[in-house]
Amino acid sequence: RMIVLVGLALLLVYLFWRQPVHWQRIYLAGTLAAVLLVTGEKTVERIAETGRIFDTTLTTPWEDMQVWCAQNTPTDALLMTPIYIEGFRSFSKRPIYGTYKDGAPHNYSRKTIFRWWARMQALGLSLPWNRAAFPSLYHQHALSVARENNIRFVIYEKSIALPPVAPLYENQQFAIFETPVLPDSSATN
User: In whole angstroms, what is the distance from residue 108 CA to residue 112 CA?
Assistant: First the structure.
C-alpha cells in the first residue's frame, strides 16, 4: 500500500513539473486528496493528536508517557522528568524542569546558563559528568526539588525506584505521580 502511494506521488510530481502553472495546482490538489483517501480518517486524527503519521501503538514507553501527559495534565503544568532522558517536550507539549542536554543551547545566554546549572546541581549533578550516576541522582533528589519548585507532576523510571503510593499513570517503563500525594521521603523500592 505504501509502495503504491509513493509511486503515485512520484508520478504526480513528474507530471506536476511538466504542466503549465494552472495544471500544477490541480495535480497538487489531486495528490493531497489521494493521500488523504489512502491513509484514511484515523491517520488524520493521529497526526492531529500526536504529530505522528504511523500508528501510535508502535511508540516507545517514553513517547506513550508523553502522549498521556498531553491528554491528562494542564497545558501549563511544569513536569519533573528524568534528566538523563531527553525529548519529553516533543509529544507532551509540556514544559519540564530540565535535562542535562538542555545546557547546550543555554551556553549562548549568561542569564539562562546559570539558571540551568543551578537546576542540575539541585538534582545532584556536578562536574565532571558521570552519566552512569544520573538515574540514581535523579531518583534521589527529584521529589525534594519538585516540592521546592512547586512542580506538581514527577515521572520516575520504574526500574530504579518508585514511591510507595499509586501512580496517576504507568506503562512498562515509567510512572507519573502527583507531588501533593507523595510522602515526604524520597522514592524507594
Answer: 8
Q: Which of 11, 14, 7 is nearest to 38 (CA)?
A: 7
Residues 18-39 have a mean pLDDT of 72
Q: Where are the alpha helices (DSSP H) in 99-155?
A: 103-106, 110-122, 134-148
Measured between alpha carbons, how far is 60 from 108 in angstroms, rounded to an integer? Answer: 32
Is the distance from CB of 119 to CB of 144 less than 8 angstroms? no
State the cell numbers at 157: 523510571
- Over 70: is that where the pLDDT of 26 sits? yes
What would the DSSP string read from start to end of 27-62?
HHHHHHHHHHHHHHHHHHHHHHHHS-SS-GGGS-HH
Choose among 78, 80, 129: nearest CA to 100: 129
pLDDT digits (tens, 9 = 90+) for 61-77: 999 999 999 999 999 99
* pTM summary value: 0.67
Query: Maximum CA pair distance of the chain?
Result: 71
* Residue/partner pairs of 47-50 with CB below 8 Å, 24 or more apart: 50/91
Q: What is the CA radius of gyration of the chain?
A: 22
